[in-house]
Design brief:
By secondary structure, the chain is α+β, with helices and mostly antiparallel strands. Helix content is 18%, strand content 30%. The strands form eight sheets. An eight-stranded parallel β-barrel has the order 4-5-6-7-8-9-10-11, surrounded by four helices. Helix 4 packs parallel to helix 5 and helix 8 runs parallel beside helix 9. The longest helix has 18 residues. It starts with a strand and ends in a 6-residue tail after the last strand.
């Protein structure tokens, strides 16, 4: 059985000095069919370890119901790494940040209004322990102390950026140990003083996260916690993108040079990310500092050594050369290959259906007096349609909200009147009615991703306090639309574009084995693409930078393939195009 420990200077594998050369790849951002391919590319870059977070919100979508199957089979992910001779670093949270919805915390936690997150709160820890107990049933047998390949487990995640509750951190450690976790535990934080004051836990290894200036950052860590090995727990070789922002890039030479500098200092390194993958579905997170709400795009390319689609980049080869130089021997020849990409061309979506015409066929309303948050009606992701009738008399008054998270489009008698977007856009919509005059009011609200970092984690979605002037309006039907069961959509032949929320549907045929591809919905405006029932994620053409969505080959099939698009803002045409390369901005 192997052992993994450390002394005052080095990590020790079976008692001998050992440098951890690791890369982050999250199993939940990669199709299961591609786990081996991505891990092989990590191995053939000369790395000895893979790192992954754990996504509580996918493993326990509904409170008390757990899923570790298919693409969530984390035990199989660890075993696949082991089959290639790779060690694994596990970051189980329960909070993970990761530019992932609510930092990996499940949305149903938000229904416990008086329960604080990430502190020594009895109820919060009960929820954490229930999940972690289930998780470690899959993990503990695979720890290095049990003959497996998991060498390190992180305590919480960058806690110093959020809090200073050592009792909470120790409670998380106690849960780990109760579940049989007896391998190397550690904390990871930035090297600012307030982070080092809050996050590291006495008695446990502490590593630092940064993207540059290793000499300065390791100096800060050495002064704070001397007598331990140096490790960059997250080497930020790139960065993530927000809507309305740029696509972040960084030169391969700079990435390789900083990596080389760390190795020459005797440090271990974990690339964040080595392969980013994709925020499929509605799982992207968001940042929010003050009123500045910034949702993350669907692609998690991250400028990583492997692209979103798993292809080699110049940085990959530069990093591989650094590893070979460090090991003082050439690495074996590369056997891994880029997956084949194919441009399937243009496809017309020949059917359409306006949401307001078909909503009752795909969703059952929840009737409430006052409009409620999405989470309060048992909904976690997607859209909610708030529908009501307003009766006059009403002098001309402006529509307003107590809360509007995150984007809303307003219809009166089925006619679009304007839209709102959190901290970015606000139309002035007014209504005036004569005595006994009635109108229908429909407001479609989109959850664009919950905040995953910082002080605004309790990011509930939907609308509350809908009013005209100072008068609140009551009596609402709320239609939850998670876009999972769409068989009831009532389609008609497509005729022309529209400004209404609309479904588009069509088919295209693939001859032979499907290949990876990228779909560009350039004639549509702002929505999601679903192929063969799989939600690829969100596009937002007016916001950019991302213009295409990655379509992995395992989503496709030989023969007929169904495309369904839901566009919140309508469309200018019914055509999409499949390309053989991405357009990320």
């Amino acid at each position: 059985m192997n052992t993994f420990t450390h002394d005052e200077k080095n990590f020790l594998m079976n008692g001998k000095p050992y440098t951890v050369i690791s890369g982050a790849m999250h199993y939940f951002r990669i199709p299961r069919e591609y786990w081996y391919d991505r891990l092989l590319k990590l191995k053939e870059c000369g790395f000895n370890t893979v790192e992954t977070y754990v996504c509580w919100n996918l493993h326990e979508k509904t409170e008390g119901e757990f899923d570790f199957s298919g693409g969530l089979d984390i035990g199989e992910y660890a075993d696949t790494a082991a089959s290639l001779g790779l060690n694994l670093i596990l970051r189980p949270g329960p909070y993970i940040c990761a530019e992932w919805d609510l930092g990996g915390l499940p949305a149903w936690l938000l229904t416990y209004e008086n329960m604080p997150f990430r502190c020594n709160d009895k109820l919060f820890l009960e929820k954490c322990e229930r999940f972690l107990t289930e998780l470690f049933k899959h993990i503990t047998p695979r720890l290095i102390t049990h003959g497996g390949n998991i060498i390190m487990v992180q305590i919480e995640n960058e806690y110093g950026s959020y809090g200073d509750d050592k009792e909470y951190l120790n409670a998380i450690v106690d849960i780990y140990k109760k579940c049989g976790v007896d391998c190397q535990l550690y904390t990871a934080d930035g090297t600012d003083k307030f982070m080092l004051g809050g996050g590291p836990l006495p008695g446990y290894l502490s590593v630092s996260n940064f993207g540059s200036n290793p000499a300065g950052n390791f100096k800060n860590m050495d002064e704070f916690r001397p007598g331990q090995p140096k490790m960059c727990g997250e080497y930020w070789c790139g960065w993530f993108d927000h809507w309305y922002d740029i696509h972040h890039v960084r030169s391969s030479n700079e990435i390789a040079d900083v990596f080389k500098e760390m190795l020459e200092m005797g440090a271990s390194v974990n690339f964040y990310m080595f392969h980013g993958g994709t925020n499929f579905g509605f799982m992207n997170g968001a940042n929010c500092f003050g009123d500045n709400y910034e949702p993350t795009v669907t692609s998690y390319d991250y400028n990583a050594p492997l692209t979103e689609a798993g292809d080699f980049t110049p940085a990959y080869y530069a990093i591989r050369d650094v590893v070979a130089d460090f090991l003082k021997e050439p690495l074996p020849e590369l056997t891994a290959k880029n997956t084949e990409k194919k441009a399937y061309g243009r496809v017309k979506l020949i059917e359409s259906s306006k949401l307001l015409d078909t909503v009752k066929s795909i969703s059952k309303p929840v009737h409430t007096a006052a409009p409620k948050f999405m989470e309060d009606i048992g909904q976690s992701y997607g859209y909610t349609l708030y529908s009501t009738t307003v009766t006059g008399p009403l002098e001309e008054l402006e529509l307003g909200f107590e809360t509007m998270h995150d984007r809303a489009v307003v219809y009166i008698n089925g006619e679009k009147k304007g839209w709102y977007e959190r901290a970015r856009h606000e139309d002035k919509i007014t209504l005036s009615l004569e005595k006994d005059e009635t109108v229908s009011l429909d407001i479609l609200c989109e959850n664009m991703g919950r905040v995953n970092y910082g002080v605004n984690l309790r990011d509930r979605k939907g609308l509350t306090g809908i009013r005209f002037g100072q008068r609140f309006h009551y009596g609402w039907d709320m239609y939850p639309l998670e876009m999972q069961e769409l068989g009831g959509v009532e389609y008609k032949p497509y005729e022309n574009g529209c400004d209404d929320p609309v479904f588009l549907r069509g088919e295209f045929e693939i001859k032979g084995k499907p290949c990876d591809t990228f779909i560009m919905p350039s004639q549509q405006r702002h929505g999601i693409v679903i192929i063969n029932g799989f939600n690829l994620g969100r596009y937002y053409n007016a916001a950019g930078p991302q213009k295409t969505l990655f379509v992995p080959a395992p989503v496709l099939r030989e023969g007929k393939n169904e495309i369904v698009i839901f566009d919140m803002d309508g469309c200018d045409g019914n055509e999409v195009e499949f390309l053989d390369e991405p357009v990320l901005g």
